[in-house]
Automatic annotation (TrEMBL):
Annotated keywords: Allosteric enzyme, ATP-binding, Cytoplasm, Glycolysis, Kinase, Magnesium, Metal-binding, Nucleotide-binding, Transferase
The protein, known as: ATP-dependent 6-phosphofructokinase
Subunit structure: Homotetramer.
Family, similarity comment: Belongs to the phosphofructokinase type A (PFKA) family. ATP-dependent PFK group I subfamily. Prokaryotic clade 'B1' sub-subfamily.
Residues holding ADP: 25-29, 159, 218-220
Transmembrane segment boundaries: none
A biological process term (GO) from this entry: fructose 6-phosphate metabolic process
Active site (record annotation): 132 (proton acceptor)
Species assigned in the record: Thermaurantimonas aggregans
Residues reported in the UniProt entry to bind substrate: 130-132, 167, 174-176, 227, 251, 257-260
Subcellular location: Cytoplasm
Amino acid sequence: MLKLPSHIAVLTSGGDAPGMNAAIRAVVRSAVYYGKKVSGVYNGYEGLIDGTFEELDSRSVKYILNHGGTFLKSARSQRFRTPEGRKQAHENLVKAGIDALIVIGGDGSFTGAKIFSEEFDFQVIGVPGTIDNDLYGTDFTIGFDTATNTAIECIDKIRDTASSHDRLFLVEVMGRDSGFIALRSAIAAGALEVIMPENSITYDQLYQAIERAGQNKKFSNIIVVAEGNKLGNIFEIADHLKAKFPHLDIKVTILGHLQRGGSPTVFDRVLASKLGVAAVEGLLIGRNKVMAGVMHNQVIYTPFEEAITRRAYINPELIRINKILTI
Ligand SMILES: Nc1ncnc2c1ncn2[C@@H]1O[C@H](COP(=O)(O)OP(=O)(O)O)[C@@H](O)[C@H]1O
Ligand SMILES: O=P(O)(O)OC[C@H]1O[C@](O)(COP(=O)(O)O)[C@@H](O)[C@@H]1O
Ligand SMILES: [Mg+2]
Protein backbone atom coordinates (compact mmCIF):
# COMPACT_ATOMS: atom_id res chain seq x y z
CA MET A 1 0.00 0.00 0.00
CA LEU A 2 1.43 3.34 -1.11
CA LYS A 3 2.13 5.73 1.75
CA LEU A 4 1.70 9.31 0.58
CA PRO A 5 3.70 12.11 2.19
CA SER A 6 2.30 14.36 4.90
CA HIS A 7 5.31 16.63 5.40
CA ILE A 8 7.47 17.68 2.45
CA ALA A 9 10.92 19.30 2.67
CA VAL A 10 12.40 21.43 -0.12
CA LEU A 11 16.00 22.48 -0.72
CA THR A 12 18.15 24.10 -3.42
CA SER A 13 21.52 22.57 -4.25
CA GLY A 14 24.53 23.12 -6.54
CA GLY A 15 24.99 26.33 -8.51
CA ASP A 16 22.16 28.79 -7.87
CA ALA A 17 19.97 29.70 -10.83
CA PRO A 18 17.50 32.56 -11.37
CA GLY A 19 14.00 31.13 -10.88
CA MET A 20 14.91 28.87 -7.97
CA ASN A 21 12.93 31.17 -5.66
CA ALA A 22 9.92 30.90 -7.95
CA ALA A 23 10.23 27.11 -7.80
CA ILE A 24 10.44 27.10 -3.97
CA ARG A 25 7.35 29.33 -3.87
CA ALA A 26 5.47 26.95 -6.16
CA VAL A 27 6.43 23.94 -4.03
CA VAL A 28 5.39 25.64 -0.78
CA ARG A 29 2.11 27.02 -2.11
CA SER A 30 1.06 23.78 -3.81
CA ALA A 31 1.94 21.72 -0.72
CA VAL A 32 -0.23 24.06 1.38
CA TYR A 33 -2.97 23.89 -1.28
CA TYR A 34 -3.03 20.09 -0.93
CA GLY A 35 -3.10 20.31 2.89
CA LYS A 36 0.49 19.11 3.48
CA LYS A 37 3.09 20.46 5.88
CA VAL A 38 6.17 21.88 4.19
CA SER A 39 9.63 22.79 5.47
CA GLY A 40 12.50 24.65 3.84
CA VAL A 41 16.01 23.29 4.28
CA TYR A 42 18.78 25.94 4.35
CA ASN A 43 22.12 25.44 2.53
CA GLY A 44 21.22 22.45 0.36
CA TYR A 45 22.48 19.06 1.53
CA GLU A 46 24.62 20.76 4.18
CA GLY A 47 21.39 21.87 5.84
CA LEU A 48 19.98 18.33 5.78
CA ILE A 49 23.05 17.20 7.72
CA ASP A 50 22.98 20.18 10.11
CA GLY A 51 19.20 19.99 10.58
CA THR A 52 18.63 23.63 9.57
CA PHE A 53 14.94 23.22 8.71
CA GLU A 54 12.16 25.76 9.00
CA GLU A 55 8.46 25.14 8.57
CA LEU A 56 7.03 27.41 5.87
CA ASP A 57 3.52 28.59 5.03
CA SER A 58 2.12 30.29 1.96
CA ARG A 59 3.10 33.76 3.27
CA SER A 60 6.71 32.68 3.95
CA VAL A 61 7.31 32.78 0.21
CA LYS A 62 5.80 36.17 -0.60
CA TYR A 63 7.83 38.66 -2.69
CA ILE A 64 10.39 36.11 -3.82
CA LEU A 65 9.00 35.18 -7.25
CA ASN A 66 10.92 38.00 -8.95
CA HIS A 67 14.24 37.61 -7.12
CA GLY A 68 17.31 35.80 -8.43
CA GLY A 69 19.35 33.48 -6.23
CA THR A 70 17.67 31.28 -3.65
CA PHE A 71 16.47 32.47 -0.26
CA LEU A 72 17.06 28.95 1.08
CA LYS A 73 20.69 29.36 -0.02
CA SER A 74 22.63 26.69 -1.87
CA ALA A 75 25.77 24.69 -1.23
CA ARG A 76 28.07 22.06 -2.62
CA SER A 77 28.34 19.49 0.17
CA GLN A 78 31.27 17.13 0.52
CA ARG A 79 29.68 15.57 3.63
CA PHE A 80 26.63 14.43 1.66
CA ARG A 81 28.96 12.40 -0.56
CA THR A 82 29.75 10.21 2.48
CA PRO A 83 27.47 7.47 3.94
CA GLU A 84 27.86 9.05 7.42
CA GLY A 85 26.69 12.46 6.14
CA ARG A 86 23.65 10.96 4.44
CA LYS A 87 22.80 8.88 7.55
CA GLN A 88 22.81 12.05 9.65
CA ALA A 89 20.62 13.76 7.03
CA HIS A 90 18.11 10.89 7.16
CA GLU A 91 17.99 10.90 10.97
CA ASN A 92 17.28 14.66 10.97
CA LEU A 93 14.46 14.28 8.45
CA VAL A 94 12.84 11.45 10.41
CA LYS A 95 13.17 13.41 13.68
CA ALA A 96 11.37 16.37 12.06
CA GLY A 97 8.56 14.09 10.80
CA ILE A 98 9.44 14.79 7.17
CA ASP A 99 8.59 11.97 4.78
CA ALA A 100 9.40 13.35 1.31
CA LEU A 101 11.97 15.66 -0.24
CA ILE A 102 12.04 17.96 -3.26
CA VAL A 103 15.53 18.80 -4.54
CA ILE A 104 15.90 21.81 -6.84
CA GLY A 105 19.29 21.51 -8.53
CA GLY A 106 21.32 19.99 -11.34
CA ASP A 107 22.81 16.63 -12.30
CA GLY A 108 25.11 16.46 -9.26
CA SER A 109 22.24 17.15 -6.87
CA PHE A 110 20.12 14.43 -8.48
CA THR A 111 22.99 11.94 -8.26
CA GLY A 112 23.08 12.59 -4.52
CA ALA A 113 19.27 12.46 -4.31
CA LYS A 114 19.13 9.10 -6.06
CA ILE A 115 21.74 7.54 -3.77
CA PHE A 116 19.98 8.93 -0.69
CA SER A 117 16.54 7.77 -1.83
CA GLU A 118 17.83 4.24 -2.50
CA GLU A 119 19.77 3.99 0.76
CA PHE A 120 16.87 4.96 3.02
CA ASP A 121 13.82 4.19 0.86
CA PHE A 122 12.97 7.89 1.06
CA GLN A 123 10.65 9.56 -1.46
CA VAL A 124 12.47 12.23 -3.51
CA ILE A 125 11.55 14.27 -6.59
CA GLY A 126 13.88 16.63 -8.45
CA VAL A 127 13.24 19.98 -10.12
CA PRO A 128 15.83 20.99 -12.75
CA GLY A 129 17.44 24.22 -11.58
CA THR A 130 20.71 25.06 -13.33
CA ILE A 131 21.71 27.73 -15.83
CA ASP A 132 23.59 25.09 -17.85
CA ASN A 133 20.47 23.38 -19.35
CA ASP A 134 22.43 20.11 -19.31
CA LEU A 135 19.78 17.70 -18.05
CA TYR A 136 18.01 15.02 -20.02
CA GLY A 137 14.22 14.96 -19.53
CA THR A 138 13.39 18.63 -19.90
CA ASP A 139 13.63 20.99 -22.86
CA PHE A 140 14.71 23.78 -20.54
CA THR A 141 16.09 23.99 -17.02
CA ILE A 142 15.16 26.80 -14.65
CA GLY A 143 17.63 29.69 -14.99
CA PHE A 144 18.85 28.98 -18.51
CA ASP A 145 16.62 31.54 -20.18
CA THR A 146 17.56 34.28 -17.72
CA ALA A 147 21.28 33.45 -17.99
CA THR A 148 21.22 33.59 -21.79
CA ASN A 149 19.31 36.87 -21.72
CA THR A 150 21.92 38.30 -19.37
CA ALA A 151 24.71 37.02 -21.60
CA ILE A 152 23.10 38.64 -24.62
CA GLU A 153 22.68 41.96 -22.88
CA CYS A 154 26.42 41.93 -22.15
CA ILE A 155 27.46 40.75 -25.62
CA ASP A 156 25.34 43.46 -27.24
CA LYS A 157 27.28 46.03 -25.22
CA ILE A 158 30.58 44.44 -26.20
CA ARG A 159 29.44 44.59 -29.82
CA ASP A 160 29.11 48.38 -29.58
CA THR A 161 32.73 48.84 -28.63
CA ALA A 162 33.89 46.04 -30.95
CA SER A 163 32.31 47.76 -33.91
CA SER A 164 33.59 51.22 -32.93
CA HIS A 165 37.18 49.92 -32.93
CA ASP A 166 36.96 47.07 -35.46
CA ARG A 167 37.94 44.58 -32.80
CA LEU A 168 37.61 40.82 -32.41
CA PHE A 169 36.24 39.86 -28.98
CA LEU A 170 36.38 36.43 -27.43
CA VAL A 171 33.57 36.25 -24.86
CA GLU A 172 33.52 33.41 -22.34
CA VAL A 173 30.14 32.24 -21.08
CA MET A 174 29.40 29.61 -18.40
CA GLY A 175 28.84 25.94 -19.09
CA ARG A 176 31.25 23.66 -17.30
CA ASP A 177 30.39 20.65 -19.50
CA SER A 178 27.92 21.99 -22.02
CA GLY A 179 27.50 24.60 -24.71
CA PHE A 180 23.80 25.40 -24.44
CA ILE A 181 24.40 28.94 -23.16
CA ALA A 182 27.18 29.46 -25.69
CA LEU A 183 25.24 28.35 -28.76
CA ARG A 184 22.03 30.18 -27.92
CA SER A 185 23.94 33.36 -27.07
CA ALA A 186 25.99 33.06 -30.27
CA ILE A 187 22.86 32.88 -32.42
CA ALA A 188 21.12 35.69 -30.57
CA ALA A 189 24.21 37.93 -30.69
CA GLY A 190 25.18 37.17 -34.29
CA ALA A 191 28.56 35.80 -33.25
CA LEU A 192 31.06 34.73 -35.89
CA GLU A 193 31.81 31.41 -34.22
CA VAL A 194 31.01 29.40 -31.13
CA ILE A 195 33.52 27.19 -29.35
CA MET A 196 31.85 24.66 -27.04
CA PRO A 197 32.34 21.15 -25.66
CA GLU A 198 29.93 19.71 -28.24
CA ASN A 199 31.78 20.93 -31.35
CA SER A 200 35.33 19.88 -32.02
CA ILE A 201 36.27 23.08 -33.79
CA THR A 202 39.94 23.30 -34.81
CA TYR A 203 42.25 26.29 -35.03
CA ASP A 204 42.24 25.92 -38.83
CA GLN A 205 38.46 26.27 -38.87
CA LEU A 206 38.68 29.33 -36.64
CA TYR A 207 41.34 30.90 -38.86
CA GLN A 208 39.17 30.25 -41.93
CA ALA A 209 36.14 31.87 -40.27
CA ILE A 210 38.16 34.99 -39.39
CA GLU A 211 39.72 35.19 -42.88
CA ARG A 212 36.28 34.83 -44.49
CA ALA A 213 34.91 37.60 -42.24
CA GLY A 214 37.75 39.90 -43.42
CA GLN A 215 37.05 39.06 -47.07
CA ASN A 216 33.36 39.85 -46.47
CA LYS A 217 34.28 43.21 -44.91
CA LYS A 218 33.09 42.14 -41.46
CA PHE A 219 35.39 44.17 -39.28
CA SER A 220 33.98 43.66 -35.79
CA ASN A 221 33.54 40.13 -34.64
CA ILE A 222 32.44 38.19 -31.58
CA ILE A 223 33.45 34.60 -30.86
CA VAL A 224 31.52 32.99 -28.01
CA VAL A 225 33.56 30.52 -25.97
CA ALA A 226 31.95 28.07 -23.54
CA GLU A 227 33.89 27.69 -20.32
CA GLY A 228 34.13 23.89 -20.76
CA ASN A 229 35.22 23.86 -24.44
CA LYS A 230 37.83 21.35 -25.62
CA LEU A 231 40.10 23.73 -27.56
CA GLY A 232 41.51 25.37 -24.46
CA ASN A 233 41.51 28.23 -22.05
CA ILE A 234 40.14 31.46 -23.57
CA PHE A 235 43.48 33.28 -23.07
CA GLU A 236 45.36 30.50 -24.87
CA ILE A 237 42.88 30.70 -27.73
CA ALA A 238 43.37 34.48 -27.86
CA ASP A 239 47.17 34.01 -27.97
CA HIS A 240 46.87 31.61 -30.92
CA LEU A 241 44.67 34.05 -32.80
CA LYS A 242 46.98 36.99 -32.03
CA ALA A 243 49.94 35.02 -33.38
CA LYS A 244 48.08 34.17 -36.59
CA PHE A 245 46.51 37.63 -37.09
CA PRO A 246 48.96 40.14 -35.60
CA HIS A 247 47.16 43.05 -37.29
CA LEU A 248 43.88 42.31 -35.45
CA ASP A 249 42.96 43.98 -32.16
CA ILE A 250 41.81 40.96 -30.10
CA LYS A 251 40.22 41.29 -26.65
CA VAL A 252 38.93 38.82 -24.08
CA THR A 253 35.89 39.23 -21.81
CA ILE A 254 34.78 36.64 -19.25
CA LEU A 255 31.16 37.12 -18.24
CA GLY A 256 31.45 34.83 -15.19
CA HIS A 257 29.03 34.74 -12.31
CA LEU A 258 26.97 37.73 -13.37
CA GLN A 259 25.20 35.20 -15.63
CA ARG A 260 23.85 33.49 -12.53
CA GLY A 261 22.21 36.60 -11.06
CA GLY A 262 19.28 38.87 -11.69
CA SER A 263 15.53 38.79 -11.78
CA PRO A 264 14.24 35.69 -13.62
CA THR A 265 12.61 36.16 -17.01
CA VAL A 266 8.91 35.47 -17.51
CA PHE A 267 9.88 32.18 -19.15
CA ASP A 268 11.85 31.03 -16.09
CA ARG A 269 9.17 32.18 -13.64
CA VAL A 270 6.48 30.25 -15.50
CA LEU A 271 8.67 27.17 -15.94
CA ALA A 272 9.60 27.22 -12.24
CA SER A 273 5.95 27.62 -11.24
CA LYS A 274 4.90 24.69 -13.44
CA LEU A 275 7.67 22.40 -12.21
CA GLY A 276 7.23 23.27 -8.52
CA VAL A 277 3.56 22.28 -8.73
CA ALA A 278 4.46 19.18 -10.80
CA ALA A 279 6.96 18.07 -8.14
CA VAL A 280 4.39 18.23 -5.33
CA GLU A 281 1.68 16.58 -7.45
CA GLY A 282 4.20 13.91 -8.43
CA LEU A 283 4.89 13.10 -4.78
CA LEU A 284 1.16 12.91 -4.11
CA ILE A 285 0.67 10.28 -6.81
CA GLY A 286 3.60 8.25 -5.46
CA ARG A 287 6.35 9.23 -7.92
CA ASN A 288 9.84 8.66 -6.58
CA LYS A 289 13.45 9.09 -7.79
CA VAL A 290 12.28 11.14 -10.76
CA MET A 291 12.83 14.63 -12.09
CA ALA A 292 9.86 16.74 -13.14
CA GLY A 293 10.51 18.35 -16.51
CA VAL A 294 8.73 19.90 -19.46
CA MET A 295 9.12 18.42 -22.93
CA HIS A 296 7.13 19.72 -25.89
CA ASN A 297 5.11 21.78 -23.41
CA GLN A 298 4.03 18.68 -21.42
CA VAL A 299 5.05 17.94 -17.85
CA ILE A 300 6.86 14.61 -17.69
CA TYR A 301 8.69 12.66 -14.99
CA THR A 302 12.08 11.16 -15.92
CA PRO A 303 13.88 8.67 -13.63
CA PHE A 304 16.94 10.27 -11.98
CA GLU A 305 19.01 7.50 -13.53
CA GLU A 306 18.11 8.70 -17.05
CA ALA A 307 18.18 12.42 -16.27
CA ILE A 308 21.74 12.06 -15.00
CA THR A 309 23.22 9.54 -17.42
CA ARG A 310 21.58 10.40 -20.73
CA ARG A 311 23.04 13.41 -22.44
CA ALA A 312 20.97 16.47 -23.20
CA TYR A 313 21.87 17.05 -26.84
CA ILE A 314 22.45 20.40 -28.43
CA ASN A 315 20.00 20.79 -31.31
CA PRO A 316 22.12 20.35 -34.50
CA GLU A 317 19.63 22.59 -36.32
CA LEU A 318 20.85 25.52 -34.20
CA ILE A 319 24.45 24.82 -35.21
CA ARG A 320 23.39 24.71 -38.88
CA ILE A 321 21.45 27.98 -38.58
CA ASN A 322 24.41 29.68 -36.97
CA LYS A 323 26.70 28.57 -39.83
CA ILE A 324 24.36 30.04 -42.44
CA LEU A 325 23.86 33.34 -40.67
CA THR A 326 27.49 34.14 -39.98
CA ILE A 327 28.38 34.37 -43.66
N1 LIG B 1 27.91 11.05 -6.18
C1 LIG B 1 27.34 11.84 -5.26
N2 LIG B 1 26.98 11.33 -4.06
C2 LIG B 1 26.38 12.11 -3.13
N3 LIG B 1 26.13 13.41 -3.31
C3 LIG B 1 26.46 13.97 -4.48
C4 LIG B 1 27.08 13.23 -5.52
N4 LIG B 1 27.28 14.05 -6.58
C5 LIG B 1 26.84 15.26 -6.19
N5 LIG B 1 26.34 15.23 -4.94
C6 LIG B 1 25.82 16.33 -4.14
O1 LIG B 1 25.17 17.28 -4.94
C7 LIG B 1 25.77 18.58 -4.73
C8 LIG B 1 25.58 19.46 -5.92
O2 LIG B 1 26.22 18.90 -7.07
P1 LIG B 1 26.92 19.85 -8.15
O3 LIG B 1 27.46 18.97 -9.23
O4 LIG B 1 27.89 20.74 -7.45
O5 LIG B 1 25.79 20.82 -8.66
P2 LIG B 1 24.52 20.60 -9.64
O6 LIG B 1 23.48 19.87 -8.89
O7 LIG B 1 24.10 22.00 -9.95
O8 LIG B 1 25.02 19.84 -10.85
C9 LIG B 1 27.22 18.23 -4.39
O9 LIG B 1 27.88 19.28 -3.72
C10 LIG B 1 27.02 17.03 -3.48
O10 LIG B 1 26.64 17.42 -2.19
O1 LIG C 1 29.73 28.98 -8.71
P1 LIG C 1 30.83 28.00 -8.92
O2 LIG C 1 30.98 27.07 -7.79
O3 LIG C 1 32.09 28.70 -9.32
O4 LIG C 1 30.43 27.10 -10.15
C1 LIG C 1 30.54 27.47 -11.49
C2 LIG C 1 29.75 26.48 -12.32
O5 LIG C 1 28.40 26.55 -11.99
C3 LIG C 1 27.61 26.62 -13.17
O6 LIG C 1 27.22 27.96 -13.36
C4 LIG C 1 26.38 25.79 -13.02
O7 LIG C 1 26.73 24.45 -12.81
P2 LIG C 1 25.82 23.48 -11.93
O8 LIG C 1 24.40 23.80 -12.25
O9 LIG C 1 26.24 22.10 -12.34
O10 LIG C 1 26.11 23.78 -10.51
C5 LIG C 1 28.56 26.18 -14.30
O11 LIG C 1 28.26 26.68 -15.58
C6 LIG C 1 29.86 26.76 -13.79
O12 LIG C 1 30.96 26.08 -14.33
MG1 LIG D 1 25.75 20.26 -12.80
